[in-house]
Amino acid sequence: MRAALRRVIAITRKEFIHIRRDPRTLMSVLLMPVIQLLLFSYAISFDVGNVPTVILDQDRTTASREYLAAFEHSEFFRVVDHIESDTEADNAFDTSQAKVALIIRPGFADAIAEGHKAEVAILIDGSEPNSAQLGRAYAVALSSTEDRHVLVSWAENQGLDMSAVGGLSPQIRTWYNPDRRSADFLIPGLMVVIIMIVTIQQTAVSLVKERDQGTFEQLTVSPIRRAELMVGKVLPWVLLAFVETAVIVAVGVLLFGVPLRGSVLALALGSVLFVFSSLAIGLLISVRASSVEVANMAGLLISFLPGFMLSGFAFPLESIPPALQFISYLFPGRYMMVIARSVFLKGADVATVLPQLIALGLYTLVSLTIASLAYSRRLS
Fold first, then answer.
1. DSSP letter, residue 215
2. What pLDDT score was predicted for residue 187?
C-alpha cells in the first residue's frame, strides 16, 4: 500500500513539475478561469434598460405631453430624439439610433375628451428579441397605467365618485433574486461552465502530451501499475480544479456580491462529484485523441457547447426541443447547474439537492469506470 502511494505521489509530483515549467499552462489553469468569470460577468447581462426611444407627437396637447412624460421618466426608456415625421422614425430604426418609437397622431386629446379610446402607435425594433419583448411589456404596462388615470379624470369631470369603484391591485414579489440582478443569476452558472471547460480541456491533453513527448512508452514499461498511473496523472488537475472552484466562489461573493445563502457542504459535495465527472470526460478524450490539437478541439467542443446550451445556463431546459433535453442528461453540467443556483440563491441544503447529487454521483461512477477501462485498454 505504501509502495503504491509512493508511486502515485511520484507521478503527481512529475505532473506538477511539468505544469510549473510551462507558464502558459499554469496561467491558463489558475488565471484564465478568473479572467473568464470577470469578462463574462460584465459582458453578459439580461438586464435591459435605457432603451433608446424616439417620440413623434403630432397632437401637441397637454394630454399627449402627459402621456409621453410617463415614458420620459421611466428607467426603461431613454428618449434620444423628438422627431417630426414617420420617415425619421424609419431612419432611426435603420441606423440603430432607436429601438422604440412612440407616435401620437392628431386628435389624441379630442378622443380622450369625448370619452373614446385614443390610439397610440408604439413601434419596436424586433432585431433583438429580448429587448423587443421587454419593451412591449413595459409599453403596455405604462399605457395601462395612463389609461387608468385618463378614466379616473374623465369620471371626475362627469361628477362620478370613483372612490367607491373596486379594482385590482396586484402585489408582486420576486423570490430569491428580488433586485433581479443578472450577476446573481449568471455567476453561479458561470462557475459551472468555466470549471467544466478548464477541467475537461486540460485533462484531455494530458495523455496526448505524454505520447507526443515520447515518455508514454517509458511509463507503460515501468513498475507503475495502470491504476496508479491514471490516478497520479489526474490528481493534480483535481486539486487545481478545487482551487479554481474556491477562487471563483470567492470572487463571486466578495467582488460581485452574489449571496451564498445555502449549505456550503452541498456546494462542496456537488463540486467534488462534478470535477471528477468532468475529469473522466477529459480522460476519455485524451485516450481517443491522436494529437494535442485534436484533444484541444474536442475538449473545447464537448465542454463549451453543452456547458452553455445544454446545462440551463443561458436558456431554460424546458424551452429547448425534447431531443436536446434528453441529450442534456449526458453532460454533468445539467446537474451541477441546479445545485449551484439552488445553493447560492435559494438557500438549499444537502437534502434539497439530494436528487441532483445522486444523479451526479451515478454519472461520476459510470464515467470514471468507462474512462478507467478505456485508459487501461490504451496502456495494454
1. -
2. 86
Cβ(73)–Cβ(98) below 8 Å: no
Residues of the chain within CATH 3.40.1710.10 domain(s) are 51-164
> 322 is written with which cell numbers?
425534447
- One-letter amino acid of 272: V
Domain 51-164 annotated CATH 3.40.1710.10: yes
Q: Which parts of the chain are beta strand (E)?
A: 51-57, 77-82, 100-104, 120-124
Residue spans of the chain under pLDDT 50: 165-168
pLDDT digits (tens, 9 = 90+) for 28-80: 666 777 777 777 766 666 666 678 888 888 888 888 888 788 778 877 778 88
Place of cell 459582458: 43
37, 47, 166, 282, 321 from 236: Cα distances, Å: 22, 39, 68, 14, 38
Which pLDDT score is estimated for 166?
47
| Number of helical H runs and strand E runs in the chain | 16, 4
C-alpha cell at 284: 476519455
Residue 137 pLDDT: 64
Evaluate whether 188 touches 258 at the Cβ level (below 8 Å).
yes
Neighbours of 373 (CB within 10 A): 11
